[in-house]
Amino acid sequence: MKWLKVLRKGVLTKxxxxxxxTKLVDVPVSxxxxxxxxxxxxxxxxxxxxxxxxxxxxxxxxxxxxIVSLAQIEEVEGMYY
Length: 81
Description:
The protein is mainly alpha-helical.
């Protein structure tokens, strides 16, 4: 699928673009375009985030995603819950 190649190129650093998705969950967050090694070190110290999977499953990230989703629902339905 061509769009997956485009996705890989857009979100992953060159070193990790050829790895299978199943392996990418265990690579450092610095494998993501825009996240430097120094950023990765900060995330590790501040939030114990080492890998892409750690980032995706981080409770603060999950709570933030939930808040944004609920805000979108609130806008559409015009109701405050």
